[in-house]
Every structure is written in C-alpha cells, then in structure tokens.
Amino acid sequence: MKSSIRVIILALLVVCAIACAQNHDHQHYTVGSPDKQTQVAFSIESGELFYEIYYKQEQILEPSRLGLVWENFDFSNNLQLTAVSEVSIVSDTYELVHGKQKSHEYQANERILTLENNEGKELQVIFRVSDNGLAFKYVLPNLGASKVKMLEELTTYNFKTSAKTWIQPMADPKTGWEKTNPSYEESYEKGVAVGSPSPIASGWIYPALFQSDDTWVLISEAGVGADHAASRLAADSPNGEYRITYPSDQEKIFDGAVFPSATKSWESAWRILAIGSLEDIVHSTLGTDLATPQRTDLDFAYVRPGAASWSWALGKDESIYYDIQKRHIDYASEMNWNYCLVDVNWDTNIGYEKIGELARYAQSKGVGLILWYNSAGDWNSTPYTPKHQLLTREMRTVEFNKIRDLGVKGVKIDFFGGDGQSVMQYYHDILEDAAKSSLVVNFHGATLPRGWHRTYPNLVTVEAVKGFEMITFDQKFADEAPKHMAILPFTRNVYDPMDFTPMALHEIPNIIRRSSKGFELALSVLFYSGIQHFAESPEGMTKQPEEIKDFLRKLPKSWEETKFIAGFPGDYVVLARRNGSDWYISGINALETSQSIDIDLSKLGLSSSKGFLITDDESSESWRFEDLGDSSNLSVEMNPNGGFVIHLSK
Question: Is the Cβ–Cβ distance between 649 and 551 less than 8 Å?
Fold first, then answer.
C-alpha cells in the first residue's frame, strides 16, 4: 500500500511540475522524452539551480545541483531564471565507420534555461531528453575579451541511498609502474551501496553504472573537445550524491593547462545519462549521439576495421624481433586478420629499414602493420622506445609520413599524462595529424575516448580498461577476471571501442586461467573494438580444432546491430551482433562453483536456415560443436566460468 501511495504522489509531483512550466513565478519547469517515459524537472531554490529525474513516474535522481564557477563568473548561487525556451525537437542521423551499431537516429526534446547571477552575467543550461536518456551542457555566451579559467563545476547526481553502483576508481596521477597512472585500469567496485567512498582519492571514472530500484542509470560524458578537460566523479559521495570533479594539477603536459579556459564564449562537454532497463543501457548510443560529428575536413576513406595478431600479449618484450614479427604476419594472414601490431622497442630491436621490409612483406600477405610509440615527454619515466617522436606537430608530421611511406598502416600510442586540458589537446592533435598521414590510431595507457571515434573514425580503439595484460601479470586479478569481464558490456564498452585484447585459448605463462575456452572464444564477439587485437599466439592457435580457427577467420570485421539478450553486471551476459544477414550470439557466465545458466534464445526472432554452436564440453579445456537447424527453439546452457558462440546465417 505504501508503495502504491508513493507512486501516486510522485506522479502528481511530475504533473504539477509540468503544469507549473507555464508559470515563471513558480521557477519550476520540466522537459520530457518523446515517449514521455523520462521527465526532467528543474528549479531555482534559494538562488541555486537544481534538477531531478523521473522515469516511468518513479524518481530516479533526487534534487541535484547544477552550476559553474569561473574566474569573474560565479554561477553557484544568487541565480535568477530569466528565460526558459519552449520545447523544441532535436534530431540527428549518422553512420559510424565502426561501432556496435552502424546507422543511428537520435531524437530528443530540448529546453534551454537562461540564468543571471547577481552581477548580471549570463549562463545557459541546455537539456535534451531522449527516450531512455538525458544530456545537458553549460554555455557561457559572453565571457568577454580577456581569457578566463574554469575553477569548479557544481554538477551532482543525487541517488536514493538505497541505490547500488558498479564503478571503477580513478588511479592517482604519477603512481604505478614508472609513474604512468592514471590510465583507467583499476578493478570495479561491484554492486556497492551508493555513498561508499572511493578507495583512491582521485575519485571515480566514467562510465559509472547505478541501479535505483528496478531502473538502471549509466553516467558518462561526450563531446570533450580540445579546449576541455575530461571530468570524473569525486571520491566522496555523501548520502549517494556524486559530484563532478576535474583533474589534479599533475595531469598536464608541456606545462600546459589542467582546467579549461576561454575568451568570448565557451560550451561544456555533454553530461549524459542512459536510463531504463539493462537492455536500454546496453543499447544506448548517447555516447556517440552527443559526440562531435565526423570531421568533414579530413579524409577517413582509408580506415578499415578488423582484427590483429599481437606478439607482446603472451611473448612480452622478448617477442619484438624481426623473425617473430614475420611469423605473426603469417599468422594474421592465415587467420584472415588484416593487421599485425609490432610493440615496444621495435626501433632498436628491428629498426626502420627492416620495418619497411616487414611492411612490404605484410602487404603481400594482405596485412597492415601497426607500430607502437611512447607518448613521451616528462609525464612518464618509462624506458620503452620510440619515445620522443610525437611531441610537436612538426615532429609528428615527419614521423607519421616516414612510417606511412614505409607502408605502415597505423600507430599504437601509450602512456598519456592524465585528463587535463593540455592532454585533451594532445589527443585531438594526434588524431588530426594521423588522419592527414592516413594512419589508424590505438591509444593505450589512455583516457576514456568519450565518443571520439565518431569525430575521428581513424581512432579504431582505446585501452582505458583493466585488460588482458593485467591477467598475465597477476594471479589475483586472473582469479577475479571473469567477473570483471562480465561488467564491461554494461559499462566501459557500451559507447566506445575497447582494446581489452581478448582471447587466450591455450596457456598464459605462469598464470592459471579461470575462464574456460568457450568463455575466451565468446569474447571475440562480446567485446567491441574497431580493431580487435587477439592475445592468442600462433603456437596456441595451432592447438585448436579447425572449427575454432574457421570461426575466427570468418568473424566479421565490423558490426551493424547489437542486441542485448540477458545478463547482470558481474554475473553473466549474452549479446547478439549482426553483420549483413548473419547473426553472432555470444555469452559468458562469471558465476562460480556449480551455477550453470540456461539461456533461452527462442524469443529473439533470429530466423536462419543454418547455424552452429561452439561451447564448452564437460571440461573447461575441451570443446563441444553442434550444428543447428531450426533456430526458433534455441537454448544454451553456460557452465560456471564458461561461455559460447553461435553463428546463424540465411
């Protein structure tokens, strides 16, 4: 009875807020989604700006702060609402060169608030509410002729104290191996109560996943330009109220800026919240919907998604030699993978002249070379080379053109200096210069890309995840890795390409792998990356049945559609991805002991004339293959720490 009364009261509050929208005296307004399921109410209370979110008439976010403080521009209090626009419709259609989905349609209802502080200076807040999503950003339309700097953002996300979160701490800068942090490579807190403090003082990263009753919320940001800093959530969240914070003073390069600054006018990045069921979260495209559209002044026709062989995953530094790389080129060619990544110290172990030979040999095999670089500068102390080649536009242009002329197709750049504005400028400059030299880019030791692969399709993948290499370093993480991997499709990999470097089907030196072979194979479909760098070695692949190799040879190089089938963060997940008329279904079960999971696929409506299943046999180290006829009655049992793949075709 209490629950029913509460729903009625909340519904009346929303209705009242909507009615008040026509009366400026109440200082309380709303904007709703096209399907009317999501409502955002905003108000001025004692001179401070607040917003709250309702989904299906249930309050999801309690009143949460909005505001900015810049030098000479304080919009934290003493605010007056001077104008509220009528609701307008915003729509966009676009295609991605690579992503979990190719074609996109975005539609939202927009409302713009105009406010003044007690000095008469103006702030605008733009709200866009789409089905299962909210985006908002700040606009300072008149900063004047002198450059001023941001000091603080007041945005908060105020959850009910009963909510839970799946969230990753942000590493402190200048910590870790050779002072290379932060690099978005920590372990997730799994289903903890909101308000739990971060174990690391630097705070929490995006995307951050929350569960409030039966509704899920994924928080991130998009449209982070070269004049922005990347934000995060503060370490403290009293009573479940999470606030946005900015990088520390150490997160800069070239003695550059940490906080953004501007003259004349400035717009923030979009703060984005996907809202709804777990299916809605996984299907959300807000991260690219609100990203800056593809640069039209650059040519990206050369960009080819695909897969790559990579010796360093299992062979480490000792594998970066000419003969071993030639063998990995042969391996990529045999597997129908279109890239081979040559990692650290190639300049000293192999040299430019021999890299040119390898590039020509690779091209004869239909394979493109990708070369590793150290981001360099004084923000890390790593010994790996090449180290000082990319620091300025002039240096990058010379180096990128040099390797392009050798026949190299891309670069992997590692060990970035944090999230300050000068680092964001560096990312954008690299992507622009690489595009001018027709090179694809993979960032490692890097920030979350926040939709940049829409703006720069040559950004094929980014690490920004505690990935496979961490399993090879540490048995403790190897033990928890299955649960970690079962969180990523609901968080890190929802919007952006992720270079987890998956799939060890055979042995990991000095490590006991807890996931089954079926689990590992499933990651080839489950994880999205513009170029998927596979960890398995040529030697390990020779030990696999021909059916496995054939599956990986024919795996599509890009996806057109993704469907969520079932799952729960950290427990299990099943996704289906489409290329043309072919569907690939993959699932992993991170539950331990004897907790098998039965997955009913009969309601998917994925008709086919033929198909097959690959999964674990009774042993986690053996395979079971099954030809599939009628796909309308499909069901699969996933063993503990096990997984499967299904291919359905017309």
Answer: no
Closest among 11, 3, 54, 1 to 32, alpha carbons compared: 54
CB 147 within 8 A of CB 262: yes
Q: Is 210 exposed, middle or buried (0-12, 13-18, 19+ CB in 10 A)?
A: buried
Nearest residue to 209 via CA among 528, 494, 500, 587: 494
**Tokens 């996943």, residue located:** 209
Q: Which of 346, 428, 419, 357 is nearest to 389 (CA)?
A: 346
Cα–Cα distance for residue pair 385/346, rounded to 1 Å: 8
Task: Report the interhelical angle of 421-436 vs 393-406 (nearest 10°).
Answer: 40
- Cβ atoms of 457 and 96 within 8 Å: the answer is yes
pLDDT confidence bin for 210, thresholds 50/70/90: very high
Residue carrying structure tokens 């390990």: 540
pLDDT tens digits for range 97-128: 999 999 999 999 999 999 999 999 999 999 99
In SS3 terms, 558-612 reads as CCCEEEEEEEECCCEEEEEEEECCEEEEEEEECCCCCCCEEEECCCCCCCCCEEE
Tokens encoding 644: 């499967």
Distances, alpha carbon 95 to alpha carbons 105, 269, 301, 454, 525, in Å: 9, 21, 14, 9, 21
Angle between helices 546-554 and 517-526 (to 10 degrees): 10
- What six digits make up the tokens of 380? 């890390």
Q: Which of 242, 216, 260 is nearest to 423 (CA)?
A: 260
Interatomic CA distance for residues 309 and 333, integer angstroms: 9
Residues 6+ apart with CB under 8 A from 76: 48, 67, 68, 69, 152, 154
The structure tokens 């596979």 sit at 534
Tokens standing for residue 190: 């799994």
In the numeric block, which tokens belong to residue 268?
């923030």
Tokens of residue 527, six digits: 């994880």
State the amino acid at position 348 in one-letter form: T
Question: Are 439 and 404 spatial neighbours (Cβ–Cβ below 8 Å)?
Answer: yes
* Three-class HEC string of 40-109: EEEEEECCEEEEEEEECCEEEEEEEEECEEECCEECCCCCEEEEECCCEEEEEEEECCCCCCCEEEEEEE
The first and second tokens of residue 6, run together, are: 């509460």
- The pLDDT tens digits for 52-88 are 999 999 999 999 999 999 999 999 999 999 999 999 9
Regarding pTM above 0.85, the answer is yes
Fill in the DSSP letter of residue 516: -
In 206-245, DSSP assigns E strands to 208-212, 215-222, 232-233, 241-245
Q: What's 352-365 look like in SS3?
A: HHHHHHHHHHHHHC
The whole-angstrom separation of Cα 253 and Cα 347 is: 24
Neighbours of 388 (CB within 10 A): 11
Taking the CA atoms of residue 444, residue 407, residue 365 and residue 329 in that order, the dihedral angle to the nearest 10 degrees is -40
Contact 225, 428 (CB under 8 A): yes
User: Residue 419 carries which DSSP code?
Assistant: S
